[in-house]
Design brief:
By secondary structure, the protein is of the alpha+beta class. It has 29 helices and 29 strands. The strands form 8 sheets. It has a 5-stranded antiparallel β-sheet, with helices on both faces. A hairpin with a 4-residue loop joins strand 18 and strand 19. Helix 3 packs antiparallel against helix 7.
Length: 955
């Protein structure tokens, strides 16, 4: 490198003045010392100014605090004066009574009680005569002479009421005196003395951090009456006076208007002087730091004399390497799809490397001004680029950002750019420079990877949720199936007692109902996801729906020993327009959920009407296990319960609340929940009521619409007459339906598919066809359509497990007259069949005499049998009373006794009836119990008739 090039690397000052490094360092040292001296003078001056400002601020704060507190004390005392004056005017008669008879203790006690009702902190009460002598003296046995003196002075001077504070060996107090006219020669004085607690608290809350407030006597400035910390307790009289030092340190004093006091502010030990000391300590530390920094800089300059020359030589050696490195850099930038740029802030000239031009899509004949480059940037990114460059200039630190640019073909590229700032010797911004890189391919790859990762996570989550749901459903379905199959197998054991057999049957029924509930939940969810669940909007009474819910829920709460009630927030609409079936489903889901998670306590349902939103709301509250906030957030998620432990302990599909919330939203409302672990939960359901014009509102349950009576349906043996064609392909269903139809007394023919049903119906007369909708060879829909086309006009009832409304509509459209869903309940089947078959009245039964088999074998035992039969009417009466009162436990005991003795006396039919009564009681079939009790009455009559005949034959 030439000497000229080397010279260009030297500082400007060296080229102009040509001074040596030693001279430069000595000049710098003198300059530093001058700056240090000037800075020290400035610090001292600034400290003095800060001290004066602080003292002035402290004085203003103290003055404002003392003046404000003085006004508050005056306001407080004026309120007390007005209260005492008002009390004196109101109790004039009582005061007159005391003045006339100072020994009337009752009157005085009444006055004291009235004063304390108004002023709980009152210390003493008295009444003085016109000469200032008190009629009654009550200071807990102590009269303070100063108080008497003040009363006399007030009475003689007749000046406005004043407030005093007196030092007392036992307590401090302040006195309020008002004149009262008691009808004497001169006005009397009503006197009340108060403890200073309120003023003490006022001073404590008003004092500044570095000051405390004190009340002083105006005629004796050194006498301390009351301080913010409370009354001084020391009995040493000297403690009631300020020390000489305290009097000299008084910051501010102002009189308390209308009193004999001055309010004074005293600095605390950690007050102003301590703060000022901190200021001077701070200045001293700053001065030491400046001296240390100056010494360090001078030493550093001395060590740098040699380094400066060595650095210049090293720069000259490496200058020629810079050019070579620039070429290498350009080559590396081309490989990395990168370029560099710089912008001179003084000349406003922009330089772009070849790589930068290529990335930005700029050709040689295009302008390269900053304005042109800015227009190639995507519009929404331009403002951000401007802020990006401005931040680099203002904050003087490197930045990096990403932005989009338009290509010549209209496509968009994503670029990454960095920017740094260089400054001149005067610390002024000189030049911006940085690099720019095309990162379009990398960004596209990142987006693809991110999308793939999200898709993978979604798939894994879905798979995991599905696996958890299937595992839970497998457990939920297999559990009741295990009970059903197991207990069904035990029924085949010939030695199983009747009681155990009854329990097995009830267990099978209960688990079958549970399994049906699980399947219904899954089917409802499938309908929801397919958006095929159907709703109706009809006019109905919500009171009827709640009555249905109550009948089902109360049975479960009673079995679990939980309190249950419904609270109506009247007025309520008598009718609403919505879907009663779905509303009932929602309330039952939530109530059953509450019962499941409540071990003790209560289940409450509240109902009300929101006129503003035209909504009916139901609140189900329980005292169950409750939930915390994370559990509440996911309680309505599909397949979700509170946590895995909840699923294990309580079971369930986790679908009930999800379905309920969906149903509520479809009815125009929603479900919200509040809960607290260990306390319980509240689920609030809202639904739209629909148009309520001309709908009455009721104020009590007596006004609720009466529920339409529905005829009770029960299967009676041999009460139907007619022929039925049963089309059913499942053998088990054939057997079950055959049992039901036989008990009804109907004749029936069974076929396995729709083709055979069509042929049988065309060749034989039937009163009713029960047609399964899904059968092999020909299904029920096709068979019904063929029959109707052939002008077959007999009634047809569809049998199907598809219970959706569209399935019912499809069956009716095909030509069916009725619709029965599976699983088939025998009462529902009887109700449908009885519409189309003839109902026959059973013939009157004859009741022939019944004879004892024991008398036939042992005639000599007729007397023993006679005593048994004589007691039968009494036993029968007890059984009839127990049945009428529904005292099932007593009835079970009587039936058990009858079963045990009936066969022994030669009447096995009594044993059989007693056994049947116990069986029906065990299964809670109370209608059947009543029929058996009635039958028992006839049997007892037959036994009595038979015994009378046997007595005559023996005689």
């Amino acid at each position: 490198m030439s000497d000229n090039n080397l010279n260009t690397l030297k500082p400007e000052s060296a080229r102009v003045k040509n001074r040596t490094p030693s001279q430069q360092n000595r000049s710098s040292a003198w300059l530093i010392l001058s700056v240090l001296l000037i800075t020290t003078v400035f610090l001292l001056w600034n400290t003095w100014v800060r001290q004066q400002d602080y003292l002035q601020q402290e004085f203003n704060s103290v003055r404002n605090s003392v003046n404000g507190t003085s006004r508050e004390i005056v306001t407080l005392l004026n309120e007390f004066r007005r209260a005492v004056k008002l009390l004196g005017e109101r109790e004039t008669s009582l005061l007159r009574k005391i003045a006339q008879d100072p020994n009337d203790i009752d009157a005085y006690d009444t006055l004291v009680e009235k004063v304390k009702n108004v002023f709980p902190k009152s210390f003493a009460v008295t009444l003085a005569d016109a000469n200032g002598e008190p009629f009654v003296e009550d200071f807990d046995g102590f009269i303070v002479e100063a108080c008497k003196k003040d009363i006399k002075q007030f009475a003689s001077a007749q000046h406005p009421p004043e407030t005093y504070i007196h030092p007392n060996p036992l307590t401090y107090h302040f006195d309020i005196m008002v004149p009262v006219d008691l009808g004497f020669d001169k006005e009397s004085i009503f006197f009340v003395s108060f403890k200073p607690d309120i003023i003490s608290r006022l001073l404590a809350t008003s004092q500044l951090f570095q000051h405390r407030l004190v009340l002083l006597k105006q005629d004796k400035p050194g006498l301390v009456e009351i301080v913010a910390e409370g009354v001084r307790k020391d009995l040493n009289e000297n403690q009631f006076f300020l020390t000489e030092k305290e009097q000299n340190n008084i910051s501010f004093m102002t009189p308390v208007e209308g009193t004999l006091w001055n309010l004074v502010s005293l600095p605390k030990e950690t007050g102003i002087s301590h703060h000022l000391l901190n200021i001077w300590v701070e200045v001293f530390i700053q001065f030491l730091l400046l001296v240390s920094l100056s010494i360090f800089i001078i030493k550093h300059l001395q060590r740098s004399e040699k380094n400066i020359l060595e650095t210049n030589i090293a720069l000259s050696r490496h200058a020629h390497e810079i050019h070579k490195n620039e070429k290498r850099l350009e080559r590396a930038q081309q490989i990395a799809n990168m370029g560099h740029w710089d912008y001179n802030l003084v000349s406003e000239q922009l330089f772009l490397s070849d790589g930068a031009n290529h990335i930005l899509g700029i050709t040689e004949d295009e302008a390269t001004s900053a304005h042109q480059i800015l227009h190639k940037i995507y519009p929404t990114d331009r403002q951000r680029i401007k802020r990006f460059i401005a931040s680099a200039i203002v904050k003087r630190k490197p930045y990096q950002t990403e932005f989009r640019v338009f290509n010549h073909d209209g496509s968009i590229s994503i670029l990454s750019a960095s920017v740094e700032l260089t400054i001149d010797n005067d610390n002024n911004p000189l030049q911006l420079f940085g690099i720019v890189q095309d990162i379009t391919a990398r960004k596209q790859a990142e987006i693809s990877n991110k999308n793939a990762l999200i898709a993978k996570m979604d798939a894994e989550t879905a798979s995991e949720t599905k696996s958890e749901f299937l595992a839970n459903m497998s457990h939920e379905i297999r559990t009741p199936l295990t009970a059903i199959i197991g207990f069904a197998e035990t029924l085949l054991q010939s030695d199983q007692p009747m009681k155990e057999r009854t329990k097995s049957i009830r267990t099978i029924i209960r688990n079958g109902d549970h399994l049906l509930h699980i399947i219904n939940d899954i089917l409802d969810l499938s309908k929801i996801e397919a958006e095929k669940i159907e709703f109706e909007h009809v006019k109905f009474s919500p009171f009827h729906t709640l009555a249905d819910v109550e009948s089902l829920v109360r049975m479960q709460t009673t079995n679990k020993k939980l309190a249950f009630d419904i609270h109506y927030n009247f007025p309520l609409p008598a009718y609403i327009n919505s879907d009663p079936l779905r509303l009932k489903q929602i309330l039952l889901n939530i109530c059953c959920n509450a019962i499941k998670f409540t071990h003790s306590g209560f289940i409450h349902i509240n109902i009300g009407y929101d006129r503003d939103n035209e909504e009916l709301w139901f609140e189900v509250a329980d005292s169950g296990i409750g939930m915390d906030e994370p559990e509440i957030k996911k309680v309505f998620d599909t397949f979700t319960q509170a946590d895995l432990s909840t699923t294990k302990e309580y079971g369930g599909t986790g679908l009930g609340l999800t379905i309920s919330k969906y149903l509520a939203e479809q009815l125009g409302g929603t479900i919200t929940v509040t809960s607290q672990p260990g306390v319980g939960s509240k689920f609030k359901v809202t639904i739209k009521t629909g148009e309520l014009e001309n709908i009455p509102f009721i104020d009590n349950l007596n006004q609720a619409p009466a529920e339409a009576a529905t005829p009770a349906t029960s299967i009676q043996a041999n009460t139907l007459s007619g022929k039925i064609l049963l089309a059913e392909d499942n053998n088990d269903n054939q057997r079950l339906l055959s049992m039901y139809l036989k008990k009804m007394g109907a004749e029936f023919t069974i076929v396995d598919n729709g083709k055979l049903a069509y042929e049988a119906a065309m060749n034989e007369e039937f009163d009713l066809i029960l047609m399964d909708m899904q059968m092999p060879i020909m299904d029920g829909i096709e068979a019904v359509q063929l029959l109707r086309k052939a002008n077959y006009n007999k009634p047809i009832a569809a049998l199907t497990a598809n219970a959706m409304k569209k399935d019912k509509d499809r069956c009716l459209a095909a030509g069916c007259d009725d619709f029965i869903t599976k699983p088939i309940h025998r009462n529902v089947l009887y109700e449908v069949v009885s519409r189309y078959l003839r109902i026959i009245e059973p013939p009157e039964k004859s009741y022939p005499p019944i004879y004892s088999t024991l008398i036939k074998e042992e005639p000599d035992l007729i007397d023993i049998v006679n005593r048994f039969v004589d007691n039968l009417p009494t036993t029968l009466k007890l059984i009839l009373n127990a049945n009428e009162k529904q005292d099932w436990e007593e009835l079970n005991n009587l039936a058990h006794q009858l079963k045990g003795v009936g066969g022994g006396y030669g009447y096995p039919m009594l044993t059989e009836i007693g056994s049947k009564i116990q069986f029906q009681l065990e299964n809670k079939f109370y209608e059947e119990v009543t029929l058996l009790v009635n039958e028992l009455g006839h049997v007892c009559q037959q036994i009595c008739t038979g015994l009378a005949t046997e007595k005559q034959s023996v005689a």
